[in-house]
Design brief:
Length: about 220
Amino acid sequence: MSKLEIVHENNDYIVVNKTAGLISEKSPYENTTVEDQVFNHFSKNKQKPYVGVIHRLDRVTSGVLVFAKKKSVLVEFNELFSSRKVEKTYLAIVKNKPLKDKDNLTNFLVKNTLEKRADIVPSKSKDSQKCMLSYQVLGKNDFGYLLEVKPKTGRFHQIRAQLAHIGLPIIGDDKYGSDENYFPLAICLHAWKLTYPTSESKELMTYEALAPRNTFWSFNSLRLS
Protein backbone atom coordinates (compact mmCIF):
# COMPACT_ATOMS: atom_id res chain seq x y z
CA MET A 1 0.00 0.00 0.00
CA SER A 2 1.21 3.50 -0.83
CA LYS A 3 2.73 5.76 1.78
CA LEU A 4 1.19 9.05 2.80
CA GLU A 5 2.53 11.85 0.60
CA ILE A 6 2.49 15.13 2.51
CA VAL A 7 2.24 18.38 0.52
CA HIS A 8 2.11 20.71 3.55
CA GLU A 9 1.55 20.44 7.29
CA ASN A 10 1.10 23.01 10.06
CA ASN A 11 -0.56 23.18 13.49
CA ASP A 12 -4.05 23.50 12.00
CA TYR A 13 -4.23 21.12 9.06
CA ILE A 14 -2.39 18.77 6.74
CA VAL A 15 -2.47 18.74 2.93
CA VAL A 16 -1.77 15.39 1.27
CA ASN A 17 -1.55 13.98 -2.23
CA LYS A 18 -4.10 11.17 -2.28
CA THR A 19 -3.22 7.98 -4.14
CA ALA A 20 -5.85 6.70 -6.56
CA GLY A 21 -7.39 3.44 -5.32
CA LEU A 22 -7.95 4.63 -1.75
CA ILE A 23 -11.17 6.13 -0.44
CA SER A 24 -10.86 9.41 1.44
CA GLU A 25 -12.82 8.69 4.59
CA LYS A 26 -12.57 5.94 7.20
CA SER A 27 -14.78 2.92 6.45
CA PRO A 28 -15.43 -0.43 8.17
CA TYR A 29 -15.24 -2.07 4.75
CA GLU A 30 -11.72 -0.84 3.90
CA ASN A 31 -8.41 -1.96 5.36
CA THR A 32 -6.75 1.39 4.61
CA THR A 33 -8.13 4.81 3.77
CA VAL A 34 -6.48 8.21 3.48
CA GLU A 35 -8.05 9.18 6.79
CA ASP A 36 -6.42 6.10 8.37
CA GLN A 37 -3.05 7.14 6.93
CA VAL A 38 -3.44 10.66 8.31
CA PHE A 39 -4.52 9.36 11.74
CA ASN A 40 -1.48 7.07 11.89
CA HIS A 41 0.77 9.97 10.94
CA PHE A 42 -0.73 12.22 13.64
CA SER A 43 -0.47 9.40 16.20
CA LYS A 44 3.32 9.53 16.03
CA ASN A 45 3.22 12.79 18.00
CA LYS A 46 -0.12 12.74 19.79
CA GLN A 47 -2.35 10.16 21.45
CA LYS A 48 -5.91 10.04 20.10
CA PRO A 49 -5.40 12.84 17.56
CA TYR A 50 -8.31 14.65 15.96
CA VAL A 51 -8.76 14.16 12.19
CA GLY A 52 -11.36 16.32 10.50
CA VAL A 53 -12.42 15.23 7.01
CA ILE A 54 -12.91 18.51 5.16
CA HIS A 55 -13.65 17.19 1.66
CA ARG A 56 -13.36 13.98 -0.35
CA LEU A 57 -12.18 12.61 -3.67
CA ASP A 58 -13.53 9.59 -5.53
CA ARG A 59 -11.59 6.36 -5.00
CA VAL A 60 -10.35 6.42 -8.61
CA THR A 61 -9.12 10.03 -8.40
CA SER A 62 -5.73 11.14 -7.09
CA GLY A 63 -4.67 14.52 -5.78
CA VAL A 64 -4.87 17.23 -3.16
CA LEU A 65 -6.84 16.58 0.04
CA VAL A 66 -6.94 18.62 3.26
CA PHE A 67 -7.60 17.27 6.76
CA ALA A 68 -8.12 19.43 9.84
CA LYS A 69 -6.30 18.93 13.15
CA LYS A 70 -8.90 20.88 15.14
CA LYS A 71 -12.69 21.08 15.15
CA SER A 72 -12.54 24.87 14.74
CA VAL A 73 -10.41 24.50 11.61
CA LEU A 74 -12.83 21.94 10.19
CA VAL A 75 -15.71 24.38 10.72
CA GLU A 76 -13.75 27.19 9.04
CA PHE A 77 -12.92 25.09 5.98
CA ASN A 78 -16.49 23.76 5.77
CA GLU A 79 -17.68 27.35 5.55
CA LEU A 80 -15.21 28.10 2.75
CA PHE A 81 -16.38 25.08 0.78
CA SER A 82 -20.10 25.67 1.35
CA SER A 83 -19.81 29.32 0.30
CA ARG A 84 -17.95 28.29 -2.89
CA LYS A 85 -14.81 30.24 -1.96
CA VAL A 86 -12.54 27.26 -2.69
CA GLU A 87 -11.35 26.89 -6.28
CA LYS A 88 -10.43 23.39 -7.44
CA THR A 89 -8.27 22.74 -10.47
CA TYR A 90 -8.08 19.24 -11.92
CA LEU A 91 -6.00 17.55 -14.59
CA ALA A 92 -7.55 14.95 -16.87
CA ILE A 93 -6.17 12.91 -19.76
CA VAL A 94 -8.55 12.05 -22.60
CA LYS A 95 -7.83 9.93 -25.65
CA ASN A 96 -9.85 11.94 -28.16
CA LYS A 97 -8.92 15.38 -29.39
CA PRO A 98 -11.27 18.09 -28.07
CA LEU A 99 -13.12 20.05 -30.75
CA LYS A 100 -12.07 23.24 -28.98
CA ASP A 101 -8.81 24.03 -27.17
CA LYS A 102 -10.84 25.65 -24.40
CA ASP A 103 -14.51 25.76 -23.59
CA ASN A 104 -17.16 26.24 -20.90
CA LEU A 105 -19.62 23.41 -20.39
CA THR A 106 -23.06 23.72 -18.82
CA ASN A 107 -25.27 20.65 -18.42
CA PHE A 108 -28.00 19.17 -16.27
CA LEU A 109 -27.01 16.11 -14.26
CA VAL A 110 -29.05 13.40 -12.56
CA LYS A 111 -27.42 11.14 -9.98
CA ASN A 112 -28.01 7.52 -10.94
CA THR A 113 -27.91 5.87 -7.51
CA LEU A 114 -28.51 2.35 -8.84
CA GLU A 115 -25.47 2.41 -11.14
CA LYS A 116 -23.44 4.82 -8.98
CA ARG A 117 -22.87 7.24 -11.82
CA ALA A 118 -24.06 10.62 -13.07
CA ASP A 119 -26.23 10.91 -16.18
CA ILE A 120 -26.40 14.05 -18.30
CA VAL A 121 -29.99 14.86 -19.28
CA PRO A 122 -31.17 17.13 -22.14
CA SER A 123 -32.90 19.74 -20.02
CA LYS A 124 -33.70 20.87 -16.51
CA SER A 125 -36.00 18.62 -14.49
CA LYS A 126 -37.10 18.25 -10.87
CA ASP A 127 -34.40 15.60 -10.35
CA SER A 128 -31.55 17.34 -12.17
CA GLN A 129 -28.81 19.67 -10.98
CA LYS A 130 -27.07 22.29 -13.07
CA CYS A 131 -23.35 21.60 -13.49
CA MET A 132 -20.71 23.86 -14.99
CA LEU A 133 -17.01 23.60 -15.71
CA SER A 134 -14.33 25.10 -17.89
CA TYR A 135 -11.46 23.27 -19.54
CA GLN A 136 -8.42 24.02 -21.64
CA VAL A 137 -5.91 21.80 -23.41
CA LEU A 138 -2.44 21.95 -21.84
CA GLY A 139 -0.59 19.36 -23.88
CA LYS A 140 -0.51 16.13 -25.88
CA ASN A 141 1.47 12.90 -25.67
CA ASP A 142 1.22 9.36 -27.09
CA PHE A 143 -1.70 8.51 -24.80
CA GLY A 144 -3.91 11.53 -25.36
CA TYR A 145 -4.63 15.14 -24.45
CA LEU A 146 -4.00 16.78 -21.09
CA LEU A 147 -6.84 19.02 -19.92
CA GLU A 148 -6.91 21.55 -17.11
CA VAL A 149 -10.44 21.43 -15.70
CA LYS A 150 -12.07 23.89 -13.30
CA PRO A 151 -15.49 22.86 -12.01
CA LYS A 152 -17.77 25.78 -11.15
CA THR A 153 -20.18 23.54 -9.26
CA GLY A 154 -19.55 20.58 -6.99
CA ARG A 155 -21.78 17.87 -8.42
CA PHE A 156 -21.33 14.12 -8.14
CA HIS A 157 -18.96 12.84 -10.90
CA GLN A 158 -19.57 16.01 -12.88
CA ILE A 159 -16.13 16.20 -14.54
CA ARG A 160 -16.29 12.57 -15.60
CA ALA A 161 -19.86 12.86 -16.88
CA GLN A 162 -19.55 16.25 -18.60
CA LEU A 163 -16.36 15.37 -20.47
CA ALA A 164 -17.78 11.99 -21.54
CA HIS A 165 -20.92 13.76 -22.76
CA ILE A 166 -18.87 15.68 -25.36
CA GLY A 167 -16.97 12.57 -26.48
CA LEU A 168 -14.03 12.95 -24.10
CA PRO A 169 -14.20 10.11 -21.56
CA ILE A 170 -11.25 10.18 -19.18
CA ILE A 171 -8.70 7.44 -19.86
CA GLY A 172 -9.41 4.38 -17.73
CA ASP A 173 -12.95 5.50 -16.85
CA ASP A 174 -14.94 2.59 -18.30
CA LYS A 175 -17.98 3.69 -16.26
CA TYR A 176 -18.22 6.66 -18.61
CA GLY A 177 -17.23 5.00 -21.86
CA SER A 178 -13.42 4.85 -21.93
CA ASP A 179 -11.99 1.83 -23.76
CA GLU A 180 -8.42 2.61 -22.69
CA ASN A 181 -6.66 0.64 -19.95
CA TYR A 182 -5.09 2.47 -17.03
CA PHE A 183 -4.19 1.17 -13.55
CA PRO A 184 -6.63 -0.79 -11.35
CA LEU A 185 -9.05 1.34 -9.31
CA ALA A 186 -7.75 4.50 -10.99
CA ILE A 187 -8.53 6.85 -13.86
CA CYS A 188 -6.54 9.71 -15.39
CA LEU A 189 -8.16 12.36 -13.21
CA HIS A 190 -6.05 14.26 -10.70
CA ALA A 191 -7.04 16.99 -8.24
CA TRP A 192 -4.12 19.26 -9.02
CA LYS A 193 -4.61 22.51 -7.09
CA LEU A 194 -6.73 23.86 -4.26
CA THR A 195 -6.99 27.63 -3.80
CA TYR A 196 -8.80 29.50 -1.03
CA PRO A 197 -8.69 32.89 0.75
CA THR A 198 -6.96 32.89 4.14
CA SER A 199 -9.00 34.16 7.10
CA GLU A 200 -6.27 36.54 8.28
CA SER A 201 -5.30 38.46 5.17
CA LYS A 202 -7.82 37.21 2.56
CA GLU A 203 -4.85 36.54 0.31
CA LEU A 204 -5.18 33.44 -1.83
CA MET A 205 -3.42 30.29 -0.68
CA THR A 206 -2.77 27.54 -3.22
CA TYR A 207 -1.62 23.98 -2.61
CA GLU A 208 -0.53 21.78 -5.51
CA ALA A 209 -0.29 17.99 -5.62
CA LEU A 210 2.16 16.57 -8.14
CA ALA A 211 0.59 14.46 -10.88
CA PRO A 212 1.00 10.65 -10.72
CA ARG A 213 4.49 9.46 -11.58
CA ASN A 214 3.84 7.23 -14.57
CA THR A 215 4.25 7.54 -18.33
CA PHE A 216 0.63 8.52 -18.95
CA TRP A 217 1.36 11.81 -17.20
CA SER A 218 4.55 12.58 -19.08
CA PHE A 219 3.85 16.00 -20.61
CA ASN A 220 6.23 18.87 -21.21
CA SER A 221 3.84 21.15 -19.32
CA LEU A 222 3.94 19.01 -16.15
CA ARG A 223 6.60 18.25 -13.60
CA LEU A 224 6.36 14.76 -12.14
CA SER A 225 8.89 15.08 -9.33
